[in-house]
Amino acid sequence: MSTGSPPGRQLATTTLLPPDREILIELLGLHARVLQRMPWVEALLVLGMAFFMYPFIPAPLFVEWGILTVGVETVRAIYATWVLRRASLIDPRRTHLTFMLLAVASGGAVGTGAILFMSRLPILDQALFGAILFAMPAAGVAVSQSSRYIVAAYAFSMLIPACAVWMILHPSQAVALAVLMVLYCGVIILAAADCDRLLLRSAIMRSERDRLIRDLEQRNAEVRTAMAAAEQSAQARARVLAAASHDLRQPLHALSVYTAVLAANPAPEALREVASNIDQIVRSLGSLLHGLLDLSRLSTGHYALERRTLALDKVIGAVCAEFQRAAAAQGLELIVNIEPLQTVGDPVAVARIARNLLDNALKYTERGSIKVGVTFNPSAGERPVILSVADTGKGIPAGEHSKIFEEFYQLDNPGRDRSKGVGLGLTIVQRLCELSGAQVSVRSEPGRGTCFQVSFPGVVSEPEPGEPNPKVDADVSLRGVRVCLVDDEIDILRSMGHLLNAWGMESALTDSVAGAERIFRERGKPDLLITDLRLGKGEHGADLAVRMRRQFGSFPVLIITGETSSAALREANERGFKLLQKPVVAETLREAIVAELTAR
Amino acid sequence: MKILLVDDHALFRAGLRMLLTTICHDATTLEAATIAAGISLAQAHPDLELCLLDLSLKNESGLAAIASLKDAAPQAAVVVVSSADDSATIRACLDNGAMSFIPKSLGPDVLTQALQHVLKGTVYLPEQIMNADDEPGRPTLTARQWDVLHCLSRGLPTKLIARELNLSEHTVKEHIALLFQALGVRNRTEAVIKGSQWRLLNGPLAP
Fold first, then answer.
1. A382: buried, middle or exposed (CB in 10 Å: 19+, 13-18, 0-12)?
2. CB-CB under 8 Å, B58 with A414
3. Residues A295, A321 share a domain
4. What is the largest CA-CA distance in chain A?
5. Smallest CA–CA separation between B71 and chain A, in Å?
6. Residue A212 sits in the same domain as residue A100
């Protein structure tokens, strides 16, 4: 095996990358397919040789040799069939090796013929037999398809016995024959290598093409999905626009009538009614426009929700107070049952959600009561804070539950009586919930009433009675305090770094656990570690803090996180760290830092 | 003069009521938010002269309501007041027996004028249908043909025209045929449109 070009050797010796593996399987498959035909070819060959050998070779010996060679080929064919059936499940390298061994067996079987028959043949037939034996490895190039190794195995196992016998019979030609054989084998192997490369290249091209087609199909599917989404949103927009144009035109027409009334010099006592009606129309137009604008802002994602700690009980309580009078005027009882709870969110959005739900309840309830509740349900998982608004109104048929959140959908108001509002309230509630990670659900029984529930994520605490937080001395100087800040979001890292530096702190910033470890090693234990809870790549800020404390001794730790799940809270709490919710307001951060530093 | 207003938009209805009572001092208005309520009011007031009907009422079709209202009060002229203003809708209303069609989108001045027309018992149709085709020449009609045209414009069926004009139904049919010929039209709707295009219907209502 004197030759072997680099790519070929790579194929056989280096670890197979997936595409290489695929290609090798492909080539082995081709080889296996050719092998399936080989028993017939071998049988014909044996038959052909029988024609010129029968006068000189004892029949039983020849038949035995024929059976041996055809038998070996049959074994090869059976193995090839098995390989083909297993297709991509095979281990290509092992299969390749097996094919090589089988090629040795096959070549050897034919080569045995030389040992058995050559000496019994007259010189002319010896030459013919020799020629046939030398021709067969050339055919092997085509048979092996893939591999010069298989060809080499076949050729050497056949030609070495053949040449040896020839050398013994004709010692004078020994040297020349040896040289010729080596040259011949070299040429054959080179030819096989060329074929191999060609085949490899076409296989690579094909696999590349398949990959491109797959990519293209995937891209097409993506485009189709995007188009469907765009179409859906266009339809939603068209629906909103159609409903809005009707709802906007109606009050405009009415306004036009009142203008006509005013132009016609109405009786002075009618003026009060005209004014009050115009006022109503303008209000309804205004609320429609506000609703539409809100909805459009919510839909385009331009509505940035604040995330801060808020006293949910206070926000909802204030909204309920707004509605007390309206409820009393309608003869409805407004029952408010609110637990003191702190959560994280946007106070404006939360108030808006509560207001729209209350407004809705008031519109659809003729008698009875409206109950507003805020409760903490620790078993509710991710969203344990629950706001519920339950009325004793006419209820919503089960079939309409999903529709009530659609724009401009109004129960039992096909005539779009605008005294019942514009039909955007619940849509806005739903959008706000989506944006703030809350979930809205509805339970209703026609005739009995409806209950809307909004579950908010991330309770911060149930505030202790009285003043929960002792006032932190904001004047404590932070100058010179060495702080290590870890956050995988570079923007946050930078902005917090600026803030800390502005307070005169010496900050060392890093975006990874490895970086933090380096800072600890190089500069020693800092006065304070501020770290994000999730640091990307599955790294965990609290774990880092625990590990560093173990190595370097105790130091204050502040954990910040964008997560609002109670799981995150628990993780930090279990390790005894104070948790700050992102985005952290400068004041809160300073207070927390001072509290951590002075606590020690 | 008793006028029935059928519209589900309470504020619009109130506006119409105020406009009507302002421009017509002896107008008394009845109001209904649904067709059913309108029909029962029409049945309860046999002296109803005019009915202003919105075309898109809740889930009910105002188009079908025209006929029901005319059944309930054959003597009253039904005028459609609608936010629609396309020719197809206008023609469909006239086909169903409406006397006039007032789009809600009219400006205050035109709206007042249109109401004054219908209060006087003459036909009002929006500009686009009036200008649909502008054949010159004003046909000369006999006094009887004038009477018949007025009755047609009020959406009266042949039987009622005969009763009103003290003629036999047969004679009325002949008059109608001659009127169609004179106006060059094929049906009642076209006759009313043509009549109003040529301002034939501006005169006072025949007795």
1. middle
2. yes
3. no
4. 142
5. 25
6. yes
**Cα A519-A523-A528 angle, rounded to 5 deg:** 75
Residue B19 has its nearest CB partner, among A250, A257, A267, at A257
Average per-residue pLDDT for chain A:
81
Nearest CB neighbour to B104, from listed A253, A274, A415? A253
Gap between the Cα atoms of A58 and A46, Å rounded: 14
Best mutation target, B7, B13, B18, to test chain A (most A CBs within 10 A): B18
Question: pLDDT grade, residue A568 (50/70/90)?
Answer: low
What is the number of other CB atoms lying within 10 angstroms of the CB of residue A446?
13
Those of residues 463-482 in A touching chain B at CB distance below 8 A are none
pLDDT tens digits for range A362-405:
888 888 888 998 888 777 777 778 889 998 888 888 877 777 88
CATH number at residue A505: 3.40.50.2300
Is A122 in the same domain as A261?
no
Say if B144 is an interface residue toward chain A (CB within 8 Å).
no
Chain A residues close to B8, C-beta within 8 Å = 415, 417
User: How close A408 comes to chain B (CA, Å)?
Assistant: 15
Spell out the per-residue pLDDT of chain B, length 207, in tens.
Answer: 899 999 888 889 999 999 998 888 888 999 998 888 899 998 898 888 899 998 877 666 778 888 888 888 888 889 999 888 888 888 888 888 888 899 988 888 888 989 988 888 888 888 767 665 545 556 677 778 888 888 888 888 888 888 888 888 899 988 888 888 888 888 888 888 877 776 655 544 333
**What global pTM score does this model have?**
0.47
Rounded to a whole number, what is the distance in Å from the CA of A399 to chain B's nearest CA?
A: 19
Window 50-69 of B: residues touching A by CB (8 A cutoff) are 57-59
Peptide bond into A414 cis (omega under 30): no
Residues from chain B contacting residue A259 (CB–CB below 8 Å): 108
On whether both A507 and A436 belong to a single domain, the answer is no
Where is the domain boundary, A257, A281, A300?
A300
- Assess B11–A contact: CB distance below 8 Å, yes or no: yes
By Cβ distance, the residue of A254, A277, A415 closest to B58 is A415
DSSP assignment, residue A14?
S
From the list A270, A277, A417, the residue facing B8 with the nearest CB is A417
Among A250, A256, A264, select the one facing B9 at the smallest CB separation. Answer: A250
Interface with B, mutate which of A256, A257, A285, A288 (most B CBs under 10 A): A257
Is any Cβ of chain A less than 8 angstroms from the Cβ of B24?
no
Q: Which CATH number do you get for residue A361?
A: 3.30.565.10
Residue A537 sits in which domain range?
482-598
> What is the b/e burial string over A511-531, where b = at least 16 CB atoms within 10 angstroms of the residue's CB?
bbbebbeebbeeeeebbbbbb
Topology (CATH) of B2-129: Rossmann fold (3.40.50)
Task: Please say whether the beta carbons of A370 and A335 come within 8 A.
Answer: yes
Residues A197, A72 share a domain? yes
- The pLDDT of residue A227 is 92
- CB spacing of B83 vs A261 below 8 angstroms: no
pLDDT at residue A145 in the model: 66
Nearest to A396 by CA among A419, A420, A372, A365: A365
Q: Are residues B14 and A417, on separate chains, in Cβ contact within 8 Å?
A: no
Helix intervals (H) in A118-147: 123-144
In chain B, what are the domain boundaries? 2-129, 143-197
Query: Half-sphere exposure of residue B3, counting CA atoms within 13 Å on the CB side?
Result: 27
Q: Which of A141, A5, A134, A146 is nearest to A80 (CA)?
A: A146
- Fold adopted by B143-197: Arc Repressor Mutant, subunit A (1.10.10)
